Amino acid sequence: MAVKGWVEINETLCKGCEICVHYCPVNVLALDEHRLTPQGYHPAVLVSDGCTGCMVCAIVCPEAAITVYREERPRRAKARASATRERSHDT
Ligand code: SF4
Ligand code: SF4
Question: Which terminal Cβ of the chain has fewer Cβ within 10 Å, N or C?
Fold first, then answer.
């Protein structure tokens, strides 16, 4: 199963340069033409599902304005849940 991700864009730092928009391999970023940042730029926003959490946008952003989050892989989450169950049986 593909890893799901999402991003948070710090609009105080974003300068609307669009670099992240061009580099996102799944085209889920765009500039929000209807809003302005405190500095007067159109901010980058996540516009649809499909972010894989690849971090390309965060790496290329010259302002370090993007934080990427990734959903935990189901298999690892399952293993952790079962370990928790085992521990609770021990007590
Ligand atoms: S983490 Fe990857 S897929 Fe998600 S918005 Fe950034 S570049 Fe696109
Ligand atoms: S690369 Fe960074 S500064 Fe440029 S639009 Fe994207 S988030 Fe904003």
Answer: C
Mean pLDDT of 14-32: 98
**Contacting residues for 85 by C-beta, under 8 A, at least 6 apart:** none
Catalogue all structural domains in the chain, each as residue range(s) with its CATH number: 5-90 (3.30.70.20)
Compute the distance from residue 58 Cα to the ligand 2 centre, in Å.
9
64 φψ region: left (φ > 0), alpha (ψ -120 to 50), beta (else): left
Give the SS3 label for residue 33. Answer: coil
Angle at alpha carbon of residue 85, lines to 79 and 86, rounded to 5°? 90
pLDDT digits (tens, 9 = 90+) for 42-73: 999 999 999 999 999 999 999 999 999 998 76
Residue carrying structure tokens 């952003």? 61
